[in-house]
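Here is one chain, start to finish.
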Amino acid sequence: MKIYFDENMPFATEFFTELSYFNDGIIGKKGELVPFSGRTLTAEQVADADVLLVRSITQVNEQLLHLNDKISFVGSATIGTDHIDLSYLAKRNISFHSAPGCNAISVAEYVLSALVVLAERYLLNLSSLTVGIVGGGNTGTRLSEKLSALGIEHKICDPLLEIQQTQQQAEDKSCKPSDKRNYVSLSDILACDVISLHVPKVVGGDYATDKLINANNLALLREDQILISACRGDVIDNHALLALKASGHALKVVLDVWQGEPEVLEALIPYTEIATAHIAGYSLEGKARGSEMLYQALCQQLEIMPKYQLKNFLPSASIPRVEINQDFSQILLSQLVKMVYDVRRDDAIFRQQLFVQGFDSLRKNYPVRREFSAVTVTLSSKTLSDVPHRLGFNKTFN
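Its structure:
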């Protein structure tokens, strides 16, 4: 069996080599595992693929697969599916699987690192801020959990999930009031101190997100607010944002995603507090979970029991353990977060190397970054705070 995989999928070789030897219901026949560059993949390259594993930069459609009459499985090691022609795959009876939630923790930790950095830079008290989350799916939920751990007030806007919740409660009378999530309108979110965007790209319809943040609602924002985008570049009208900033507006902007990627609106970069190359979800764990989820899906399709788990391949963190013998505070939070991931590293790389290496090269050569879960926080018996554990750190006591 011939398995083609995006070269930026961690541990793809470890997970899929054995499966490439699966043919006609048995393992033993020689297979092949073929890496490719996701941005430049052609129909000719994958004409003989049995399995195709991509990331978000590869458009999977008839144009890509029209020369292939044998492919049976397409997987995307990402959350979104706007790069996949689902109707075409369904028409050809090609199984499709994505990896919803694989990098949600990574993105939430990116946002938290950005907030810690900006709090230090502008002497902000994080506990006094209100955070508005646009998108209540996997990523928005993980961010909500971390904000709750820190006691930071936050609100969530997601009209689709709000409708689903209302319908579910109407159908299931056993739902408890405590199970209900309180959703707010976009206008409520736009009044928050921090606005963090976590929605897929949706073009058209009642709940389109393409240019969701545009000139009209940008004009409503205060000078002391923070706008963070770590979802899809087209959710913010970059030209409208540039016009606002160029007019002298003091809105603080954190951009991980850019309209028209891999092209970037160069003039906007100097107006950002933090600028990165669509790497918010690029923790080692975040990317590797996508590989693991597709491995599990392919095993299921082949009716094979999965042999490997992500923990089989993850290395130890550079700082695997830290001891805390003081009460938890914003200063301690800042130290802990930046010890694992300081977003200023990626901001510096972006500003210094974007026009030397190029956008895709920055992503391809992204340095290893770990999640909080890679570090064990040892608390003294005098420390009663459970915040590190609730943030995602492993926890032990002396």
